[in-house]
Amino acid sequence: MKLAENIWLLEASRAKGRAPGFHCYLVRDNQGLTLIDTSLPGRGEDILAEIRELGFLPEDLHRIFLTHTDMDHIGNARMLQEQTSCQVYVSAEENAYLTGERARLPQKAEMFRDFVPPKVEIYPEKLEEYQVIPAPGHTAGHVCILYQDCLFAGDCCSTESGSVTGPRADMTEDMEKAIQSLQKVSLYSFGSWCPCHGMPKNHREL
Ligand SMILES: [Zn+2]
Question: How many domains does the chain have?
């Protein structure tokens, strides 16, 4: 689904007879293709197929920005990195989950038992064209990614109920902090919330 010139919500991350609402987004920027989040494991081939359908080559994917490292966001990052040699970026606080320095919520820990993470880089302080906004709460190092008129919100918010709400409480480390983060990012100037769970929603409707 094309959201704007050079910005797509990938259908591969949507239903196709499987659990819907684990969205990832593709941007064609000055450097090539950037993927924001990677959806649930097992959807990597579909993501690559869709990149081809859009007229690009898998090798055009030069980086992945992860909003955080929960399984429904990092799920295909290693597979895509192996296929395309892209770089994968996370915040330093999220990297601590991957190295084991920080513990995940018990209900999330089990699915990471045999998980082999991709090789990651930490977000640099400044990124051309993008703004990485710390939005902790759902996880300790969650970030939102602002690009042009889109706020790629990860799990900072959800629009599943038709309005912009906070993340699922039972999967969130610190709900109070998560709501503070949501309030903080809502003050930025952008046109569309682009969440992982739920469809993009006009910011001005808030
Ligand atoms: Zn999620």
Answer: 1
DSSP string, 57-86: -GGGEEEEE-S--SHHHHTTHHHHHHHH--
**What is the CA(85)–ligand 1 centre distance, in A?**
24
Domain coverage including residue 181: 2-205
Between the CA of 198 and the centroid of ligand 1 the distance, in Å, is: 10
- The confidence band for 15, taking pLDDT boundaries of 50, 70 and 90, is low
Cα separation of 6 and 31, whole Å?
Answer: 12
Residue 181, pLDDT > 80, answer yes
Strand partners, 88: 64, 120
Q: How far is the CA of 100 from the centre of ligand 1 (A)?
A: 20
Determine the distance separating the centroid of ligand 1 and the alpha carbon of 154, expressed in angstroms: 7
CATH code for the domain in which residue 40 is found: 3.60.15.10
Q: For 59-75, write each residue's pLDDT tens digit.
A: 999 999 999 999 999 99
* Dihedral sign from CA coordinates of 25, 106, 97, 145: positive
Q: Quote the ligand 1 centre to 156 CA distance (angstroms).
A: 9
Distance 168 CA to ligand 1 centre (A): 9
pTM higher than 0.90? yes
- Could you list which residues have their CB under 5 Å from ion ligand 1? 72, 155, 196
